[in-house]
What does this fold into?
Amino acid sequence: MMLHSLSNLWHSNTSVNPAFFPENKNIVIGLPAYSIDAAHSGKITYNDIFRKDGDRTIIDFDNAINKLDPENELSFDQRIETLSFGFRTPNGKWGIQAGHAIAFSGALNYPKSLPELLWNGNAPYIGQTVQIGLQADISDWHEWSVGVMRKVGILNIGVRAKYLSGISAVRTDDDHHSMSLYTDPDIYQLTLKTDYAFYSSSIISAIDTAGLGFDVTLGSFKNNIRSKNNGIAFDLGATAQITERLSLNASVVNLGGLIKWKNDPRYFQSKAEYTYEGTSIPGADIINGSDSLDFDTKLDTLNDIFRFSQTATSAMETNTPMRIYIGGSFQLTKRWNLGMTVFHQKKDKTNDTAVGASVRFSPVKWLSLGTMYSVNNRSAANLGFHLAVTPGPIQVYFLSDNLLNAFSLKSSPAANLRAGLSLAF
It folds into this structure.
């Protein structure tokens, strides 16, 4: 959202609105830019899991598990813009643009009972049936884009088409994501029922079910610039200069974004019922390093429990997150600017909305300082900040929608920051 308030930066065009263009500039070269937006539901942080014990760092899941919600979500979006170009005619009527970026997006949903079961065993659930299945939708891809801009009266309109080339993906089947465990209160037998399936391309290529152990074979993770995993998306944007001081804008990013995965896509399914005579599931013994652990035997047991089958599939698809921005700015004085931004994102099965108000101060022409207060689904107390330095043709900036998160990644349940460099002539 902070980037949206800086329409004069080139990367606000490539990431937020294809109708934005640096003021009084005609040629732009976008150099690398990096952004990350990640969050875990609740209050769990890195420091809750990894803590110092003298000169060692140890894993302490007890503290972390106590802070989990009954249902939890981990979401993340990372974007690396490698190179981009923009050109606008001297009269400002037409403009063209092109660029490349690498995007990584995902969401992971899991019940508290899953890490609790693996860490503490099944003792808290004697005589109960608990769900332990997790859901995932994770993918990364190359993004090649080309766009055009057109100025008509007070309107500036931008359209960008993006060719998506998938790198890797894993996605659980919405119709088959159940795993339940029941512990008999009399003889402590464990009964696991599974109706669980997932798609994978270039991440997991095989799960051995031939009696040789629970052997997961990872894919090659080749970061090929081009692949058989193809898709397309569109960015649409517009700005309107209502008065000399007031401007409005709106954009849709990743409209219709869909990748069809054809590079050896696999469908893995486990549909079984298994009764285990042990006092705890073997996964808990493996994670906790039981003194009596027979690793090969435990893996064989996991293999017998899940019994994954795999088939090639042509039905694997993933969607890119669609984002909508609506905003405006008012030039209060030569040095002060006020802004407003409304943001909405549709990602997998979740929808997120945020509203922010910003203030920008330019003590000199080549320096911009600003702050934004915003409210989103997670918090009503987000204070963003930006610093943009633009001497001559150079544009360099750092910004965050929540400044405290940007500088305290290990003690915060969320992270949001962006930095980039470009040349504008």
